[in-house]
Fold:
Amino acid sequence: MLDHLIKGATVVDGTGAPARVADIGIRDGRVVLDGVRADTPARTTEDAHGLVLAPGFVDPHTHYDAQLFWDPFATPSMNHGVTTVAGGNCGFTLAPLHPDRPEDADYTRRMMSKVEGMALKALEDGVDWTWSSFGEYLDALEGRIAVNAGFMVGHCALRRYVMGPQAIGGQATPAQLDRMIALLHDAMDAGAWGLSTTQSSTHSDGDGAPVASRHASPAELIALSRAVGEHEGTQIEAILAGCLDQFSDDEIDLFVDMTAAAGRPLNWNVLTIDAAVPERVPRQLLASERARKSGGRIVALTMPILTPMNMSLGTFCALNLIPGWGEILSLPVPERIAKLRDPAVRAEMLLRADSKEAGVFRRLAHFGRYVIGDTYSRENEGLTGRVVSDIAAERGQDPFQCLVEICANDDLRTVLWPMPTDNDPASWALRRETWEHEDVMLGGSDAGAHLDRMCGAPYTTRFLGDCLRGRKLLPLEQAVRMLTDDPARLFGLRERGRVAEGFHADLVLFDPERIDAGPATLVHDLPGDSPRLDSRAIGVVSVRVNGVETIRDDQVTGAIPGKVLRSGRDTRTVSTR
Structure:
């Protein structure tokens, strides 16, 4: 007797094999194929003729570390077919926390709020912060989540635990490094997937100081990487300043040394593909080429969609990360407006934004391409939905001046939507070519982070809709493989990522005529009534995690069958040697 029978589905099994019509059974949370027919006895059945059945999608880069405590359904990712998430990225985790320093939890909350855009009130009210060790953190999630979730352990947390406030600005002594390595071993023994770290110049803590891992020496990073290689089923995830544009020679050397020391894959986020900068992709993938020659593997994550982001001159956003802009955009609002209205200040800001050091943030300074979103003053009535270049032409102003005046009328609360500069056919052709590279993988949603600024979680459904009815850059079978089996194989997930006999029944059933994602809309459903951007799934009929239905027609069922996926037990080693 089957627990459930799905009849007549078009099965796209995740391997890239041609789609086929088949009857699929589920028993004890596993897929049953052998001997299954439409008349096989089952407790429940459903007719799936005309629908596609695929493995649940695997999102390789999320920050659901906190949100899962108040939202075990990992919305909106699960709505869009994601059944497994990788968290603990970029060097930031909620554990370990030193048991004798309760103030470390407050420091971590403020850091996560600043660097990952998580609402501080939600972090305070929605998480109980009762753990110390990384294993205790994983235990706190066990049995209370609807998706499968695995977590890296963050370098910043390791440094803070061992060095306290001296983690900012200080170099670890040999004894402190030994203690960090021991903590990392403890975390991986408990099931951490490996190490995540950041050296990115954009990552600052709640006090505005560079986060702890940015002060680590290459020797510290390599020593920690070597420890990763001593455990089954582990990985490295790392961010460097050059991830945002182009790696320096020293950064390539560091990445290569880290993956080679571990003998484990290292993935980084995110490869930005733009035909206007043709030299970027070859430069970034040079790291992968060199890693393979040195006994390692470096995988670049890249998004298959253009994720819209809302901006504001009034709150922290990507504009603050342009060199020289943060010090102006962090001033009190009246002083900020005065500075922004100064032509000399604006000229200097534009000059800095167009400099090489601005990297990919250069694209944000094309202010004529911004669309005005929500406005709040009488002076701005009728501007919502209009393009800044058109308004500026009517007013005889340059686009940046025009945008500043509009925002000043709203005391800088105006919502701004930059139109992407890389939405041209040449850039999409370059993406299609780059996706074929053996060391490029789709992902990088940042789901669970930057909640009021962007919504990357729907990349799965939007990408499939584009493949089926839009640009049609890839056949469906290949697109599904890139969302399922590819990340599952990179992480060494055991019996996940395919619709195959005996595999875990992580499944998504969707209508190929409708599959898509709705527009991002601002909702207030976080603890403390904090806002976030959400997007409804279109055409997703059902999502199952470990055989249990968690989504039906974009609605959460309330079931929580997800597993905390622990290294070694739930992942196997993907050796690079």
